[in-house]
Amino acid sequence: xxxxxxxxxxxxxxxxxxxxxxxxxxxxxxxxxxxxxxxxxxxxxxxxxxxxxxxxxxxxxxxxxxxxxxxxxxxxxxxxxxxxxxxxxxxxxxxxxxxxxxxxxxxxxxxxxxxxxxxxxxxxxxxxxxxxxxxxxxxxxxxxxxxxxxxxxxxxxxxxxxxxxxxxxxxxxxxxxxxxxxxxxxxxxxxxxxxxxxxxxxxxxxxxxxxxxxx
Length: 215
Ligand code: DHB
Ligand code: MG
Description:
The chain has 215 residues and is an alpha/beta fold. 39% of the residues lie in helices and 20% in strands. The chain has a single domain, classed as Vaccinia Virus protein VP39 (Rossmann fold, 3-Layer(aba) Sandwich), CATH 3.40.50.150. Strands 3-2-1-4-5-7-6 form a 7-stranded mixed sheet, with helices on both faces. Helix 3 (46-58) packs parallel to helix 4 (73-79).
């Protein structure tokens, strides 16, 4: 039977995971240490990490901006998708999260490619030059997504990509009325209304927004 859309249940998902780049030992160790250190367990899913890494490789990304470092899991995953001369600048408001991430970045094999900057991401983004970035990944406070998207659309080069986590909002995005759902819907509405952005939602993890800035 042919279908245009197949729901992925747990059994199918478990099989798909065996055909996706597995989580490496270093990131698994980081995840466990982050939980022990009391960081919230809201890192991206391993299949999202695989997707981000391959997507960056596919566009030959050199310069990446991440909004929301948390423990550095996604920054390290993304760094694996760019060449040795490339750079992930990861922005984090919470000092304790940034310090944990810096420690794990420093002892990783991606150390030279990643810089963790502490502060308000909107302010840091405002100081970066136009058309200078290949990819921006949003994974921070959802109330900031619209603002971060506006900055990203200026920073991205034509053909650059905007990625954002949690656009399924735990499955409640379409009609939930919590702060997160309202913020994600505002982001998705703004993305649809942006004349220079075309996008699709990839239902991996809690939902990965993927947009391309037009020329
Ligand atoms: C939350 C934030 C995230 O980025 C995420 O992936 C999951 C949950 C949160 O703030 O609850
Ligand atoms: Mg997230």
